Amino acid sequence: MKKIIIAVIALIMSVTAVFFVGCDGEDKKYFEKVSSYSFWDNNGEEAVAQYKFYEVMDSFFSEGEIVDGSCIKDGKTRKILFVGMDGVRADALTNIFYDENDFDTNGYNYPCTDYSGINAVKSEGGLYIAYAGGEKGKDSEQETSTCAGWTSELTGAWHTIHGVDSNNDPKNTNKDTIMLKYAKLGLDTGLAFDWGQYFDVTLREEVSYLLANPETPMLLRDLDRPVAQSLQDIVKNEKLKDEEDILAKDIEHYNAVAMKNVGENAEYDVAMKDYLLERIEAGDDFVGGIFHAPDSNGHTYGFSNEDNHYVNSVRNSDAYIYTLFNTIKEREETMNEEWLIIVTADHGGSGKGHGKQIYEHRTIWVACNRKFDQSLFGKGYDGYREAE
Ligand SMILES: [Zn+2]
Question: Distance, CA 18 to ligand 1 centroid (Å)?
Answer without folding.
Answer: 32
